[in-house]
Each structure stands twice: as structure tokens, then as C-alpha cells.
Amino acid sequence: MIRRIASTDLAVLLLAALPAGLGLAALSAGPVRAHAAADYAEHCASCHGDDRLGGTGPALIPDTLGRVRGIETVIAQGRPLTQMQGFAEELDPDQIASLVDYLKQPVEGHPGWSPEQVAESRAMNADYVPAPAPVFSGDPMNITLVVETGDHHVSVLDGDSFEVLDRFETPFAVHGGPKFSPDGRFVYIMSRDGWVQKYDIWSLAEVGRVRAGLNSRNIAMSHDGKWLAVANYLPASLSILSTEDLSLAASLPVTARDGTESRVSAVYQAPARKSFVLALKDAPEIWEIATDPDAGPFRDGFVHSHEKGMTEALGAEAGLFARRRIVIEEPLDDFFFTPDYRELIGTNRDGDKGVVINLDVGRRIAELPLPGMPHLGSGITWQRDGHRVMATPHLNEGVLSVIDMTDWSLVGQVKTDGPGFFLRSHDSTPYVWADVFIGDHKDEMHIIDKQSLEIVQTLKPFPGKTFAHAEFTRDGSHVLVSLWEDDGAVLIYDAATLEEVKRLPMRKPSGKYNVWNKITFEDGTSH
């Protein structure tokens, strides 16, 4: 049977990981902490593990506590429509406060997540039977998945009828965007605490799940659909799973050339290169991991001779999962790629510029003036005046930058009513849909002309509420936008008239992902 993950906000705290690790005894110093440890053991450990690294519920570790509000309320009252029950009758306010303090304490040790533990966590659905054809009548390539963060579910939406075909529970706190198999049949979903779930869209059924890490950032699909890479903060590693059965194919520790252990900020698919590309959080390097059995050799050190049959070199890797190390000047995050995946654009730690790295030669070829924390992960491209341009929102200022990808010059900037987070477009539409998302104008969606770069209309159907993240249907005829609230909805617009045509109530819908747009790398879709 599937091992379900408790959808707990007590666990929101903790979705991920921090050096935590030895279990209850390591935290039992002092009478107050010992009392809290006993409360944890009695009420929490059965779901979240004796060592707080998770079990059927997410890991409860202090690295993420700073992002969570109202922890005491969640412990006391639980969370409706989830497996997180309230403990107000068992624990008084002082006990709850002590328990929260206990969870915030640093702990000794450096927890790992071994291949054996990964294998032990793997749970395949014994009731799953693959359907020979889709069990629904709609176009399987026009399915859109809607992530509902309000109660940790995904809705499977028919892109023609806009009917919900299925709604299934996900691991806690889905992050990084689902990834589809190249044929669009299967989708893989990852949570911040390292669980990866496989779902069969044709069968409308979960296939299984596995915990690939303790604190994970995102996943990426290989060019041939055989491998799924999981970027981990804890342990600092890249886990590579077989997409067939979710078994662990490789666990690659991430250590820089100077010996520094590094978290993996993100992993990206580079299908044209037959590789994964890794952003390292703590080291000035980019890693490329081959998904081609004939890749390499990649030289990691000194090369004396390249002469055929006479090669003299150190540190060579070749074949499937071989690593190529690209040394750069400073750590880069939040990558964006040219359509042919020859160039990578990343932001520096300060978020005040973009750097273009040519992956073929492994060095910087341009620098872009992009102050205001560009959010390159949501960048998109389109054709304008015979040139391909890219656009990116900025997280710290109300502007959208448009860059010519021929010479990396700044074409222009679109002033918006506040910092945005997501962009979407489609080859069939003249418009870019840009949310504001952050600040007083979070209730606005700008519609921008791709040629004039002028805002032609601003939608504001829910004053004061977050209105964000657009996604197009397969043919680009309709746009789906989220009312990003707990009692929210997905609004469906006619892409030509910009008129609302349907509204679907949902629980805090966030990202929406159309199968066709994702697997074909449709213009206007972030990758």
C-alpha cells in the first residue's frame, strides 16, 4: 500500500532539513527540554520519527522554522482536512510553547539519508493497474495539473471541457513544479521533504512514491525519460531515480574541487545536451551530469596530452551519470537556458546581475545588468522583430526586463505595479501574462503586448487577494489563473477576448502545468 504523508502544518515547519539528527536523547538536557522531548515522543514521533527526520509525516527540523507562522496554533488546533490533529486537549499552552522551543533547538550530528533508507522508504501502490488507454475521453496531451497547496492535493483538469477528472493527495508541500515523462503519460511530483510521487495520468492513479532526500529543492527529467534527478539540500547530494520503479540508480555527493560540501540549489533538464545541469548553493561551480551512456570523458584535473591513444589526464569520468565540472567566479542560482541549451543565464548571490555561461566552452561570455533580484526560473522567450528575446520578472522591484538573446543587450523594461513572480505566454498569443504577486498590488495580472511591450490591460477580479500564475491550454486558446487563497479558485479566460469563461473552486491553487506545453517546451512556458 502507499505510505501516506501526514499533511501537517506542524510539519510545515519542517519540511526539509537541517543538521539535526541524533534523536530524542540528544535534546533531553534540562527539565523543560526533557519534558518537551517526552511530549514529542508521545504525540509526534509516531508520524515524524524519533529523530524528527520524518516518517509518514514530514521532517520536524529547525532549519525551516523561520518561514512558518502560528506554529503554536497548528499544534493546538491541527489543520482541517488533513491528518494533522490538534493537541489542545492533551497539551496545555505552556507545554505547546515548550514543544515549539524544543523543535527550534539546534541538535548534534549531521543526518544522512543512505541508499538503504531510500530503498526502505519506497512504497509502490499494490492496487495500481496501468490502463491500456486513457480512462477519460479528453485529449491526454491537454491535461493541466493544478497544485492545491491548501490541503496538499493535485487536481487533474481536462483542458477542453475544464472538468476535474481526478483529485489526489500529494506529499506535503509540493515544490519545484511537477515533471512529465516525454510521452506525457506519467507525472512526477516532489515535496520539500524529499518525497517523490509517480502518478499515471492515463489511469488516473498513483503508481508509488519514495523519499529521495530529507530536504529537497526540485526534480528534473532526463531526455529519454529513464531517469529523474532530485536536488537535495540535505544530504548535500543529487539522487537519481529510475522512472520505471522509483528505485535509486545513483546517489552523488556534491563536493566542490576545494573540498567544500555544497547543497544543490536546483537541478535542470537539458534534453538537447542529454544531461542534467546543477546549480550549487555553496560553491562557485556548475555541474553537468550525463544522461547518455556514451558521454565523456570529462577531465576534472590536469591534462598533459589529448592525442588519440596517448591521453594523459587526471580525474576523468565517462558514461552514464559522468560529471563535468564547470568552475565559475561566484555561486549562481536560478538558471535560465537558451532554447538550444548552449547558454545558461544565472543570477549571483546578491541578485544584482545576470551572468551568461556558454556550456560548450564552460566559461562566462556576457554579463547582464539585472538589479532587483531577477527571477530567471520564471523567465520565458518569444520572437520579436526577428530576434529571440527573453523576459524575466524581478522580485525586488516592479519591472520586467526584456533581453535580446542574440547579443544579450537590454531591449527594454516594462514598469509594473509591483514585483512579479511568474510569466506565461504561448506561441499563438500576442500577449504575456505577468502577475504582480508581491506587495499592495498582488491582486493584479498585467496583460502585456509582446511586440510593443506595453501593458494593454490589467485584470483585478478579486481586490485585495492574490491573483497569480497563468498557464495556457495546449492550443493557447484559454488561460488559467489562480486565486491564490485557501478558499480560492482557478479562473479560465478566453485568451483572445480576455473574458472569463469559467471558474473552478479550489483550495489555494498555486502552480498549473499543461502536459503539452511542458513536454514540447512551448514558447512562453518556463522550463
Structure description:
There is one protein chain. This protein is mainly beta. The chain has a domain at 33-104: Cytochrome Bc1 Complex, Chain D, domain 2, CATH 1.10.760.10. The protein is 9% helix and 37% strand. A five-stranded antiparallel beta sheet has the order 1-8-7-6-5. It has a four-stranded antiparallel beta sheet with strand order 4-3-2-37. Helix 1 (31-43) packs across helix 4 (93-104) and helix 3 packs across helix 4 (93-104). The longest helix has 13 residues, at 31-43. The radius of gyration is 23 Å and the shape is globular. 47% of the residues are buried. Mean pLDDT is 87; it is low at 1-29. This is Cytochrome C oxidase Cbb3. It comes from Paracoccus jeotgali. It holds the Pfam family Cytochrom_D1. Keywords: Heme, Iron, Metal-binding. One of its GO terms (molecular function) is heme binding.
